[in-house]
Design a protein that fits this description.
Distance between the termini: 32 Å
Bound molecules: zinc ion
Strand order of the largest sheet: 1-2-3
Order of helices and strands: EEEHEEHH
Radius of gyration: 13 Å
Number of helices: 3
Largest sheet: 3 strands, antiparallel
Structural class: alpha+beta
Number of strands: 5
Number of domains: 1
Shape: globular
């Protein structure tokens, strides 16, 4: 199971399929970090965002009849730093 970090502030990042909170975005970084998240089984997909697992990617693709593409780390990190000006 996922444990949320104990940081008090930040925006929850949820699985695009089951809406489970998998991380918290604090300023321009994710907690846990992108690479840690993926090591835990979470998957970033182009245009859609994060999924908690491959199983949720499959469920989403089946439900919406789409084929998702994985999003590279560099792209995820660029989106994080560009998406929330302070
Ligand atoms: Zn999920």
């Amino acid at each position: 199971m996922w444990g949320l970090p104990s940081r008090p502030t930040g925006t929850p990042v949820r699985c695009s399929c089951c809406r489970k909170a998998i991380a918290v975005q604090v300023d321009n970084v994710l907690v846990p970090a992108v690479r840690q998240l993926t090591a835990l089984g979470a998957v970033p997909m182009k245009r859609v965002g994060w999924f908690c697992s491959r199983a949720c990617v499959g469920a989403y693709e089946f439900r919406f009849r789409v084929i998702l593409e994985p999003e590279p780390f560099a792209s995820v990190e660029a989106r994080l730093s560009g998406g929330k000006p302070s």
